[in-house]
Every structure is written in C-alpha cells, then in structure tokens.
Amino acid sequence: MWDLKCCPIIMITTMSMTLLTMSVVIMIEDFILKALIMGLVFSCLAGPLGSVMVWRRLAFFGDTISHSALLGLGLSLIWQLPSQLILSLFCVGLAIILTLIPFRSKVSIDSILAIFSHGSLALGLVVLALMDRPPLSLTGFLFGDILALTWEDIIITALTALGVGALTTLFWRSLLTTFISEELAKSEGVPTLAIKVGFAIALGLTIGLLLQTVGALLMTAMLIIPASCARYLSRSPAQMVIIAIGVGALSFVTGLWSSYILDTPTAPMIVVSALGFFILSRLAYFVKR
User: Fold this and answer.
1) Measuring CA to CA, which residue among 223, 233, 248, 239 is closest to residue 288?
2) Which fold has domain 8-288?
3) When comparing pLDDT for 148 and 233, which is higher?
4) How high is the mean pLDDT of the chain?
5) Which of 29, 90, 94, 124 lies in disulfide reach of 70, CB 3.0 to 4.6 Å?
6) For 25-67, what is each residue's pLDDT tens digit?
7) E-strand spans in 114-222?
8) If phi over 0 gives left and psi between -120 and 50 gives alpha, with beta otherwise, what is residue 57?
C-alpha cells in the first residue's frame, strides 16, 4: 500500500512548485506554457519509473534504450514508416530483450548494456549518414525540442502517465517486493519475471513516445536525478516516489524559468536545475546525519 503521510519536504516542494508555476503562467507565452505542462506531467510519469531504476541500479538501462533508439528512428525514416510507432516498438522490444538476456548470459549486465548502447548508437549514426538529407541532427536527438510541443504531445504524455500510475498503484506491493528482494517475492508467489517485463514495457514505451520531444539527455536525466534526490530525503519507497515527482516538477519549472530569463538552451537548463537540487539534497542528507 502507498504510504501517503505528508512530510515537510513534500509540502515545501509542492508549495514552491505551485508559486513558481503561478508566477510563470501569468507572464509566459503559449509555447512555454506547453513546455511547463509537459514538464509537470512528465514528472508524474518519471517519478515511479525513476525510483524503480534507482532501487535496482538500472541508471544505464534507460541510457541504453535512449541511445539505441537512434537506430530505430533511422530505420523508420529509411522505411518511411511512422517514426513514433516504430520508435515505440523498438524501445519496448529492446527493453524486453535487455530484461531477459541476463538470465542466459555469462556476460555481466553492465557489459551487455554498454554493448547495446554504443553498438546501436553507432549503427543509428551510420543509417542516418547513408541518407541523402537526414531530417534529424544528433543535437536534436540528444536535446529534443521541448519548446515546439503540440497539445497532442501533452495528451499522449498524460495518458501514458495515467496508465503507468494506475498500474504502479495496482501492483505496488508486488513491484516493491520484486525489486527490493526477489527471493522474498518468489516465496510469496509473486510472478517476478512478469513484473520485470511489465516494468521494461512501461519504460520502453515511455522513452519511445517521448524521446523525440524531450531528447535523450533530458529523458534519462529526469528519470534518474529526481529519484536520486528523493533517495536522500525519503523514509519509505512511497515517499521516495512522491518526492521524486515533486523534485522533477520543480526542476522543470526552475529550468524553464531560468532559461527564459537568461536566454539559455532549455533542456540543458532543466538538467542543471535538477543537478542543483541533487547537490542540495546530498548536503541536506549529510547535515541531517
């Protein structure tokens, strides 16, 4: 069950996020408003997924899928198929493969992730280089274009967040038991392999649907950094998820605001904001100890 006890950190984060959101909404233009809404919705999606990735030390798992997605995107352009569909299928398929491979491999998981990440990224670059006029630059792939969002992008993200949130709530106990102690989960009759594959599908679908919008850098950073911040500030897994959502949302708000004021690139500024919150959470952890 979810532990929904409020803590001061969550309240402060929520109040700060709300005040910043109100101040930004009053004076920003439409394209920044869309980016802000996307950031808040994406944070609700990244909180649960990122927390599980931090628990299981799967930071490079998301990185591998994001980098490998360049190959799927290149293939969709060559075959002239819908890029969103092919990219989503590619990421989901790769996530399932990476989940199942360790069961039958003598190679360590970090080596497998490195092989897939660098190999697929290189193949993707080769595929794009073979095109006369590739419609995608490496910069666009890494950083996306969060200021060029459409309402359709936001709706897709919101629906994905609702689906992931509903499934996380429904299978919370099984998910928690599986990723904290797989032996205990098996003894309780939890289908651990199905839980792992389900998580892989959710993560792959999220990356596939949003990669072209937010970019590979922002995608992996906002999955891992807010959850890592929450690890220092939380006392239970449920609190960690809630705080990760709050830190992610606050990072988007402050990053967009700073980018707007300083006229700097948006996606890197959001990541820098998240990094700042991580440093603060680390300091708070040491002070508390």
Assistant:
1) 233
2) ABC transporter involved in vitamin B12 uptake, BtuC (1.10.3470)
3) 233
4) 81
5) 124
6) 545 567 778 888 888 888 888 888 999 888 888 888 888 888 8
7) none
8) left
